[in-house]
Each structure stands twice: as structure tokens, then as C-alpha cells.
Amino acid sequence: MMDTTSNLIVSSPNIKYTDDFIYSDYEYEDTLVTRNKNELVAKPYRTSLQIKTERKIGRVGVMLVGWGGNNGSTFTAAVLANRHQLSWNTRNGKLDSNWLGSITQASTVRLGLDEKGNDVFVKMSQLLPMVHPDDLVIDGWDISPLNLAESMVRAKVIDYDLQQKLKKEMSAMKPRPAIYDPDFIAANQADRATNLIRGTRYEQYLQIRADIKNFRDKKKLDKVIVLWTANTERFCEVRPGVHDTDENLEKALRANDSEISPSTIFAMAAIDEDCCYINGSPQNTLVAGVVERAEKRGVFVAGDDFKSGQTKLKSVLVDFLVSAGLKPVSIVSYNHLGNNDGKNLSAPKQFRSKEITKSNVVDDMVESNRILYAEGEKPDHVVVIKYVPYVGDSKRAMDEYTSEILLHGTNTIVVHNTCEDSLLAVPLILDLVVLAELFTRLSFRPNVNQEWTPMHAVLSPLAYLLKAPLVPPGTPVVNALFKQRACIDNIMRACLALPPVHHMQLEHKVP
Ligand code: NAI
Ligand code: DG6
């Protein structure tokens, strides 16, 4: 059964609703494992936690860095098309707007079971108060001066008839000038870089802060979330004394240090304006100094690199293989694409950034099964990306997974995926914004005598949406997709004093 319209009320002694908050008394349970000579001792434990969810969302603004790109223009078109409930004609007939691909808008969470023992599902956004996509106010920056209608035409993603319906509104949207450093993105991007903030890095930082303030004041916003969907940069060379602490980063910014990337300047400005900053590209924007800055100011950061197609499948398939006791020994991933992202990635340093985020996504699964892999052993893992202009935004992703099976047999799985790249990435941008905003309204405390504290500044629960999830220092990285999804679902359930979903269905198994 599914019910996507009713209001959800939890009836439990452990929950309290007020006009402003939902309070949950939650027992967090896990098992502590200690090693005692040749014994492993597993000891279940419980931690009491109070969770408070603020119910008022307020007016939320999104500022996209790279607003005029394929993702930026498609995101804007999707928000407007859904807000106005637009339909458009194609050779396949009339089509309607939707949010397919968004977990908050188009996926369900199991709530419980009904009297007959059947599962009951609700839309994820029914669980807790979340900002509605129609209510998002959008702004942003781009080094390209085109307005959003022109960008949408350049992107060649949206159907022609829908473009005509959106053109008037989108032509009034113009990206703010941005920070261009030709040392960080591919040289082949230079011809579109004419909409620029000049000056030193510190002056550029001040301008970004002024832009955020201007947007927040003009649109009377309660919250602004800044999200990088601009070109992939090369990794900055992380240097002690520059990137390692908040203080050093500040000094280096003021000294116009050339290893401070444009994306790091955007992150610093966003944090200083109290805005959550999300990195949708692979580069190492969120260096230690940025994370320390976010922690000190109590602002959230998340990254890196949207996990849209090939990697999402990889983080399911390898999890399946390893947990089935099969041993992936070779994973080879080819991509060819013809959009501007592909053009930028055809330069070696920018490709290298993407190669890193695309390659580290199976490590935790390999680590979890030492029956298959010896210490330090990993599958061969190769990632190739080629620029083929003709295919445009319609990326081809081809993967070959070879696994060793019983008695040294081999099992080879080949996948061919034609991904419409931006149409897969845009729902992730929406979910990142909606969930990040939700997480800003959660607070936790062990008991009534303690202060409420927010979630850790590094928003690792967003890992489901990101290829190389940034986690708080010292925290294990989880790449397996369904574990990441269960994390999001179960945190929301905890906010409602509901137990995690365990899938045991003992009601149907034990007489
Ligand atoms: P795009 O090239 O169409 O758009 C990027 C935009 O950023 C361009 O309009 C460019 O002018 C602008 N830009 C470059 N440097 C800038 C700066 N310093 N400040 C402001 N604007 C700047 O690329 P697309 O397809 O929109 O992808 C955007 C990013 O998202 C890329 O880094 C890509 O690797 C990443 N990504 C995309 C995924 C997808 O499926 N579409 C998935 C994962 C990541
Ligand atoms: C080359 O693969 C282009 C990239 O920007 C990808 O389209 C993007 O990173 C999505 O990658 P994935 O692995 O999540 O499909």
C-alpha cells in the first residue's frame, strides 16, 4: 500500500509535537566488538538520544556556481516546469513535468505494516517537513555571460517545445560574474570566460559574500544554500601552512596564494555568510582548513561529485558481488560524452580529478570481505573518459566487471548505459538542497541536562548522492548505495522516534 497525500502522525510515548518542533526520544542501538586473545566479544549497547526537528522551513534560496552550465540551466528549467505544471509536445505526444530521479520527490520509504501485514510506503518528503521544490528561489554565478534561456538552448537537453515555454522567464535570469582562474580548469574553456570578477583572491571572496548578501536581502530569504556545479577543477596542491587550518587558509587568501582555487574561495565565502556549501564536482575544494572553518562557524559542507549513473550502478553491483561471496578482480569503466563537461575533462589534470572520485568507490566493499581479498589486495580498476562531441549530453557508460567464482571460474558482466547526463544529475542537485536544508533543522542531545547540538558540519548522510563522500575526520567512508540510502531513511525515522527498517518481517515467519 502507498499513501502519498495523507499527513503523517506518529503515535508513540517517545514523540512530542509542538507548533515549532517535533521532539523524539530515541534509543540508538549497535554492537561493540572487542578482541580478547582469540575471542571476539560482541556486546550490544544502547545510547539514549533526544532529537529535535524544527518544523518551520522559511524561504530557501539556492545559488549555483556554474548556473549557466548544462546542470545549472536544466535544474532551473526543471524547477520552473514543475512549478508551473507545464506540459509540452514531442513526437511521442504531450508530456508532463515530473521529478523522476529525485529520492525526496519520487521515491518512497517503508513506514510500517497495516493490520493485514502488508507494507505501507510513504513519499520520502512526507516523513518530515521539507522545502518544496516549487518554493526554491534560484540565483547563481557563471564565467559565461549567457542568460539562462540562452544557456538552456546551448545545453541541448530540454525538449524544443518546453524550451519555448520557459524562454521568457529564463531570459530574465542572468548569472552573476564569477571567479575564473585558467590554471584550475581546462584551457579549452577560455572562450566562454568573459563574465568575470576581477581583482585579488581576497577581493573576489568579498564580492561573492556581497552577492550572497544581496540575494538574501533582495529575496527576503531565511537560508541560502550554495552548490558548485561548475567545471571540474584540477586538484589544488595541498600545502601545509596554506590549506591545513582555517587560520592558514585565511592568511593565504589575503596573500593571494595561487594554490587557493576558485571553488575554495566560493566555499570560504559561503561558510562566512552562514550558507551550507555543497561540492558537486570531484576537486578537493573542501581542504582541511575549509572543514575547520565550517566546524568553527557551525555551517554545513558536503561533497564531492554528484553520483548520477555509472558510479551509482557500480556501488550497487560491487556490493552485490562482494556480499554474494564472488570476487570482483577487474572493473573497467569507459565513458564517452560530448557536452562541455566532457570537453573540460579531456584535459589531463581535470580528467585526473574525475578519475580519483570515480575510482575510490569500491574500497569499503573490498575492505568488508577479507575472505575474498588479502590485506592490501584490490580489484584492478580502470576509468577512461573520452570527449565525443556528437553524443552531446547523452553520455555512454560501458562497464566490464570480471569476478572470480567457484573453483577459479570467471564471471563477466558487461553493462552499456546511455545516460542523459544532466537529466540524471539535476534530481540529485534538488535532493542535496532539500536534504541539506532539512539537516540544518535537526538538533541532538543525550539528555535534558545537555545543550542541543547540530549534526556534524560535514554532512556525511548525503553520501548516497555523492561519488566520493566527505566524512568527518576519522569516520569510515561508506560507498555501498543501499547502506547510504538506509542511513538517510533511518535518520529520518529516528527523528520520528521510529525504529530502523530491518526487513526481517518476523510477523510472517514466526507462528
Ligand atoms: P557544464 O560545463 O555544462 O557547466 C559548468 C558551468 O560552469 C559552465 O557554464 C561554465 O561556464 C561554468 N564555470 C566554470 N568555471 C566556473 C567558475 N569558476 N565559476 C562559475 N562558473 C564556472 O557542465 P555540467 O554538465 O553542468 O556539469 C557541471 C559539473 O558537475 C562538472 O564538474 C561535472 O563533472 C559535474 N558532474 C556532473 C554530472 C552529470 O551527470 N551531469 C555528474 C557528476 C558531476
Ligand atoms: C564523465 O564520466 C563525465 C562525468 O562528469 C560523469 O558524467 C559524472 O561524473 C557522472 O558520473 P557517474 O559515474 O556518477 O555516472
Explained architecture:
This protein has 511 residues and is of the alpha/beta class. The chain is 32% helix and 24% strand. It has helices at residues 70-83, 103-106, 124-127, 148-155, 160-171, 201-218, 246-254, 262-272, 288-297, 310-323, 340-345, 348-359, 363-367, 421-440, 481-495; strands at residues 15-17, 21-36, 39-54, 60-65, 87-90, 93-96, 108-113, 119-123, 137-141, 223-228, 276-279, 301-302, 327-337, 380-387, 394-404, 410-420, 442-445, 453-454. The strands form 5 sheets. Strands 1-2-3-17-18 form a 5-stranded antiparallel beta sheet. The longest helix is centred in the C-terminal third of the chain and has 20 residues, at 421-440. The structure holds 1,4-dihydronicotinamide adenine dinucleotide (NAI) and 2-deoxy-glucitol-6-phosphate. 1,4-dihydronicotinamide adenine dinucleotide binds next to helix 1, helix 11 and helix 14. The site of 1,4-dihydronicotinamide adenine dinucleotide has 34 residues, from helix 1, helix 11 and helix 14.
Task: List the SSEs and their pairings.
Blueprint: E1 15-17, E2 21-36, E3 39-54, E4 60-65, H1 70-83, E5 87-90, E6 93-96, H2 103-106, E7 108-113, E8 119-123, H3 124-127, E9 137-141, H4 148-155, H5 160-171, H6 201-218, E10 223-228, H7 246-254, H8 262-272, E11 276-279, H9 288-297, E12 301-302, H10 310-323, E13 327-337, H11 340-345, H12 348-359, H13 363-367, E14 380-387, E15 394-404, E16 410-420, H14 421-440, E17 442-445, E18 453-454, H15 481-495
Parallel strand pairs: 4-9, 4-10, 10-11, 11-12, 13-14
Antiparallel strand pairs: 1-2, 2-3, 3-17, 5-6, 7-8, 13-15, 15-16, 17-18
2-deoxy-glucitol-6-phosphate binds next to helix 10, strand 13, helix 11, helix 12 and strand 15.
